[in-house]
Amino acid sequence: MSNLRIDWIACEGRGACAELAPEVISEDPWGYPIITPGSLPDAALPHVRRAVAACPALALRLVEDPRKP
Amino acid sequence: MTAWERLLPASGASGELRDLTTHVHTYGELDRDRSPHALIADVRDSGLTGRGGAGFPSYRKLEAVRAASRAARATPVVIANGAEGEPASHKDKVLLTHAPHLVLDGLQVAALALGADEAVIYVHEGPLVSTVADVIDIRRRTRVDRVPTRVVSAPARFISGQETAVVSRIDGGSALPRSVPPPIYQRGVQRRPTLVNNVETLAHMGLIARYGGEWFRGLGTTAEPGTMLFTVSGAVQRPGVVEAPIGVGLDQLLGISRLTAPVNAVLVGGYHGTWIEYEDGRHTLADASLEPVGARLGAGVLVALPASACGLVETSRVATYLADESARQCGPCLNGLPAIAHALTGLARGRRDPSLPAQIETLIHLVEGRGACRHPDGTARMVRSALRVFRAEIDLHLGGHCSATTSAPVLPTGADPTGGRGEREPVGATS
User: What pTM value is reported for the model?
Assistant: First the structure.
């Protein structure tokens, strides 16, 4: 269960996240992010935080407890 | 009234139930002095589930809004959703045309149960707006309702009825899905806790408040009680809306609608639903029974595909329609649905590329779960079922053949053929 959330309406597919956190985010054929299934490895967290901060559309969110909305 | 017909009794077919006196004479007075606790307990005991497609337990939905409004100390809003976007579905239009008071009764029940101070009935633009407005006006003049009700309309698009689109529209915005969270039961219209129920769900609630939860369970199955409005079309002589208990046999329901031709597959639950093999109609119409074939009743759409038509051609046409109906807000839906439709159209038109089915499977994975609303998921579900059920037809097409003997379209994809008036008479379950 991943705890990265994408606001699909906000996301413009700029690709910054996949560039900054390639270990957990890849791109679909249209440039929109695909989050690697499974829980986020702790080692990836610094890259993930960087990707969240760098998203130009503010569409990426890190949710610490994935059960909460 | 036969035992089956609760929402659409025979007398309702001619529109008599639009008259408030006839309505009260038929169903009895609604007791508006019962406590919220008693109203909610009745809905709990009834086992009613949502009839708009998702099938969520109505009691839990009420409880969620009640808890959220307590926690936030905010007065909730209740909404009757009658924006039936599905071209193959007519039951909401028929219900609002023939028995609107039952819906408005249910809306009052929900409002009283939750202590709401505002009720909205949400429908597509068209003649239904004035029908509903007239009924609200009559009730206002007779002062039967405690909670003021108004009508809000939205463009007649497939996705206008998605819950977040409903909230957005009522708040004065466009009828397009919004990003959640927080969920609308916490923060909906005017940022208040909001209950959105399908109009049929509310009509059942209007009856449950009168006759009780135990009465409601007198029809249907133990796990899925009550009756449901089915919209039956395709290879039938009398397409239209039929009320029947959940658990009715597919063969029986198609019999009522007068099956006219051999059938090879049935679309269950609509354009976000599932194709299943016909199997001589030996299906029980309940979610528990349909689960092994991957189907759910959804909003009660049933289309019997005649053996003379091609399931691939039909599915490609519907997929193209659904791609056009995307709100174009979310990348995977905006790009993925047209790609799916294009590949399916290739298959349907005889492009002999054996990689097409696998390409479609890949595209389905790319749209599923990747949108603000359920449009991509529902479309993916329907297309995936077509790949399964029409497997033999796919092989025929890849070999340069098609089994169809007619090219007349079966599934509607254009504007609502009734213009939103719900002209199609209820067929009536005369068993």
Answer: 0.93
* CATH architecture assignment, domain B10-216: 3-Layer(aba) Sandwich (3.40)
Chain A residue with Cα closest to B176: A9
**Ramachandran angles phi, psi of B184, nearest 5°:** -70, -20
What distances in angstroms separate CA B78 from CA A25, B52, B65, B152, B391, one per listed residue?
A: 40, 15, 10, 13, 45
Domain A4-62 grouped into CATH 3.30.70.20: yes
Cβ of residue B374 closer than 8 Å to a chain A Cβ: no
ipTM of the complex: 0.91
What residues in A contact B177, CB-CB < 8 Å?
9
Q: What is the third-level CATH fold of B227-306?
A: Ubiquitin-like (UB roll) (3.10.20)
A34/A14 Cα distance (integer angstroms): 13
Instruction: Return the CATH architecture of domain B311-398.
Output: Up-down Bundle (1.20)
CB of B178 closer than 8 Å to CB of B25: no
B335 contact residues in A (CB cutoff 8 A): 29-30, 32
pLDDT surpassing 70 at residue B81: yes
pLDDT for B415 equals 53
Residues B235 and B263: beta-carbon distance below 8 Å? yes
Contact residues, chain B, for A32 at CB < 8 Å: 331-332, 335, 370
On whether any CB of chain A is under 8 Å from the CB of B183, the answer is yes
Find chain A residues with C-beta within 8 A of B331's C-beta: 8, 11-13, 28, 30-32
What is the tens place of the pLDDT at every residue in B109-133?
A: 999 999 999 999 999 999 999 999 9
Among A9, A12, A30, select the one facing B179 at the smallest CB separation.
A9
CATH 3.40.50.11540 domain residues, chain B: 10-216
How far apart (Å, rounded) are the C-alpha atoms in residues B129 and B156? 12
